[in-house]
Structures are given as structure tokens and as C-alpha cells.
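Long-time lurker, first post. I've been practising inverse folding by hand and with some scripts of my own, and I keep getting stuck on stretches where the C-alpha cells seem ambiguous. Below is the full C-alpha cell string for one chain I'm working on. Before anyone asks, I'm not after the true native sequence, just a reasonable design that respects the backbone. If someone could post their per-position residues I'd love to compare against what I wrote down in my notebook.
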């Protein structure tokens, strides 16, 4: 009896192992492929703050995105306006598109390069970010991944 139970467990374990190994044929059957990451930040504008924030976006934010793009860190960026926003929804969406996410040493290196390019300390940049609270509030942040159809 004990031998039969052991054989049954062995068969079950082997079936589990083989089921967990992805095969090329099954991967090709999936109709979509993972693509770029889209990081989306929802921004709520405060009364009277639209012009000041639009000016910030057109100058500093755009310059930051162009720097990241020149380094190959992002593929693109855009600002979308929510023309028919309902109560609680953001007024603007700030979007950056990247092929992959940086982590560990690569992320640290990017922070160092960005800080050197800005010629400001982390404390200075944090203070400036806090000053924008007068004109806007970040309401949400979402990381989406594009799915493209297999050919």
C-alpha cells in the first residue's frame, strides 16, 4: 500500500513539473505580446493654478522628459487633458512611455546623472516639488503595460 502511495505521489510531482515548464508551442498560441510600459500620473488642478502648472509642464517638466529621452530612459511622453472630467477625476494625465523599468544599480546611476544634469541637490528638488502643491495635487499614479497582437 505504501509503495502505491509513493508511486502516485511521484507521478503527481512529475506531472506538476511538466505542466509548469512552458513550451514554445503554447507561447506562440497566446495572441498578444507584452510591450512598453506606460506610467500615467493623474493631476488635479487647483482653482487659478492652470496657467502656472501649464508653464511648469512646458518648461521644466518637458526639459526633464527630453533629458530622459536623450539618455534612452524613456521612449516618449505626453500630456492628456480630461475634457469631460467627472467629480474626483484628474484634470490632466502625464504619461511617459518606456521599454523597461530600471531597478537597483541602474536606477541609482540614473538618479546621479539626473541630479548632476539638474545641478541641484535632492533637497532643492524636493522643495520645488512641494511648491507645486499650490497649483496642483497628484491624485493617482498607474503603471500600465501595452499588449500588442501577435502577427
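-- Answer (accepted) --
I ran through it position by position. Result:
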Amino acid at each position: 500500500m505504501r509503495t502505491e502511495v509513493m508511486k502516485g505521489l511521484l507521478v503527481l510531482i512529475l506531472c506538476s513539473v511538466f505542466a509548469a515548464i512552458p513550451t514554445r508551442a503554447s507561447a506562440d498560441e497566446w495572441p498578444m505580446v507584452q510591450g512598453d510600459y506606460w506610467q500615467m500620473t493623474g493631476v488635479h488642478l487647483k482653482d487659478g493654478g492652470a496657467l502656472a502648472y501649464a508653464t511648469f509642464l512646458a518648461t521644466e517638466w518637458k526639459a526633464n522628459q527630453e533629458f530622459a529621452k536623450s539618455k534612452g530612459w524613456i521612449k516618449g511622453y505626453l500630456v492628456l487633458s480630461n475634457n469631460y472630467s467627472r467629480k474626483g477625476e484628474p484634470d490632466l494625465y502625464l504619461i511617459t512611455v518606456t521599454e523597461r523599468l530600471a531597478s537597483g544599480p541602474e536606477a541609482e546611476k540614473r538618479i546621479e546623472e539626473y541630479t548632476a544634469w539638474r545641478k541641484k541637490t535632492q533637497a532643492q528638488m524636493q522643495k520645488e516639488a512641494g511648491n507645486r502643491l499650490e497649483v496642483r495635487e497628484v491624485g493617482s499614479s498607474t503603471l500600465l503595460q501595452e499588449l500588442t497582437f501577435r502577427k
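A couple of notes from the structure itself: The first strand starts at residue 32 and ends at 45. Helices lie at 2-20, 24-29, 50-70, 104-118, 122-131. Happy to go over any region you disagree with.
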